[in-house]
Specification:
Layout: E1 15-18, H1 21-32, E2 35-41, E3 47-54, E4 57-63, E5 87-90, H2 94-103, E6 108-114, E7 120-125, E8 131-135, H3 139-146
Parallel strand pairs: 1-4, 5-8
Antiparallel strand pairs: 2-3, 3-4, 6-7, 7-8
């Protein structure tokens, strides 16, 4: 499940677009452990705006649309599955999340392993090709220990 939230709010939130946003929300919640905080649907059942939380973090997402903002973004499938950034999700049990990802059919890009910088993690793609790194390394907590 999610880690204990810090006493602050996240002030940076990745924004993602999905061709099938309702299915992406279900996958992100069931596989990675996000919780749907807000989902605003359009009349055609596409997603105008969604907020998913994990610990004290949040991502925002919506359906792919032809709009000024939408034209700024390309989906991984449109650019040969390349991405220019990934999201890192701090979890309590990377093995458990890895097992759910494998069961959900997620392509595992970097195998589950103990990291030389601490923690344990892996990297996978979601059903629409966005890349997620998941692990127990917590840069906030680990930097506190290094001081």
């Amino acid at each position: 499940m999610t880690t204990v939230p810090k006493q602050t709010r996240a002030t940076i939130m990745p924004c993602l677009r999905y061709r099938d946003a309702p299915a992406a929300i279900e996958w992100l919640c069931n596989t990675l452990g996000f919780e749907a905080r807000l989902v605003v649907r359009n009349e055609d059942d596409s997603v105008a705006h969604a907020q998913l939380t994990y610990g004290n973090g949040m991502i925002m997402l919506g359906s792919v649309v032809d709009s000024d903002y939408g034209r700024l973004l390309k989906e991984p499938a449109e650019i040969g599955t390349f991405v220019t950034q990934t999201s890192y999700l701090v979890v309590n049990d990377a093995d458990q999340v890895h097992e759910r990802a494998v069961q959900a059919g997620a392509p595992i890009l970097l195998a589950l392993q103990d990291e030389e910088y601490g923690g344990r993690g892996f990297t996978c793609r979601d059903p629409e090709g966005h890349v997620w790194s998941i692990g127990t390394y917590d840069p906030w907590a680990d930097s506190e220990r290094m001081r």
